[in-house]
Specification:
By secondary structure, this protein is mostly beta strands. The chain has a single domain, classed as Beta Complex (Metal Binding Protein, Guanine Nucleotide Exchange Factor, Chain A), CATH 2.170.150. Helices cover 15% and strands 38% of the residues. It contains 2 helices and 9 strands, in the order ααβββββββββ. It binds zinc ion. Zinc ion binds next to loops.
Length: 117
């Protein structure tokens, strides 16, 4: 009988907190990826095309924070974080997945972070 009373009290105390608009509105949060070395914000999850076990692919980076050799005739170029120069993956100019180019990023090179907008 005592245990039931404790549970009932628990729900009365916590019930309203979980309904407050500040914590339940998902639009306030944005999911971004930062460089694992220098923590520069590199990619936004909304630009992610797909992911597999080793990499995440993005259609573009956030405000040109990465660099690659754009003059190369090769279809695949190494991608670097502009700030710390760490190699983070490959830029693929055009293929069957995305004809406008994609950023194929090593999962170990970026860290997921949730920020408030
Ligand atoms: Zn970096």
């Amino acid at each position: 009988m005592k245990i039931i009373q404790v549970f009932a009290l628990f729900f009365v105390i916590t019930g309203c907190d979980y309904l407050s608009p500040k914590t339940s509105n998902p639009k306030l949060k944005s999911t971004i990826y930062v460089c694992s070395k220098c923590e520069t914000i590199l990619y936004d999850e909304k630009n992610m095309l797909y992911q597999n076990e080793t990499s995440k692919d993005f259609s573009k980076s956030i405000s040109d924070k990465v660099s690659y050799n754009s003059n190369s005739i090769s279809n695949k170029e190494k991608l670097f974080c502009k700030k710390c120069n760490m190699e983070i993956g490959n830029y693929i100019k055009s293929d069957s997945i995305n004809s406008n180019g994609r950023h194929c990023i090593d999962k170990n090179s970026i860290i997921l972070k949730k920020i408030l907008k």
